[in-house]
Amino acid sequence: SQLTEEREEQERKELQRMLLGHHPDEGKKKEGKGEDTGRSNLVGKRLKLTRTFRDPETGGLYERVEYIRRPAVVDAYIRIRKNKDDQFIRQFVAPDEQQKEKIRREKRRIQEQLR
């Protein structure tokens, strides 16, 4: 549980850095022209995300469509999509088998406490 929280916190901080435009290997930003990385062209644009979920009770799949309007978030999604391959993104999002087993055990423990 604590490991999951730490991992989520780390991922949240990494996404926050990406939203702010900071990169780990980046030093001080150069001043002058070229500072705006094209966010002005993202103003007014929307990003359509289709997320697929699995219903835990029935096991069926369902989709939910979300529209992202904030230019910084749209920019972050586009940057991640351009720089990372599909395999990396799927691996980053999906928990590994060990994490899944830990979540299952935690659910069982909570259910036993409720009985």
TrEMBL record:
InterPro entries given in the database record: TAF1 (IPR040240)
Biased composition (Basic and acidic residues): 9-38
GO CC terms in record: transcription factor TFIID complex
Annotated segments matching region Disordered: 1-43
Record-level Gene Ontology MF annotations: histone acetyltransferase activity; RNA polymerase II general transcription initiation factor activity; TBP-class protein binding
Annotated GO biological process: RNA polymerase II preinitiation complex assembly
Transmembrane segments: none
Domain of life: Eukaryota
Protein name per its UniProtKB record: Uncharacterized protein
The species this protein was found in: Cyprideis torosa
Species classification: Eukaryota, Metazoa, Ecdysozoa, Arthropoda, Crustacea
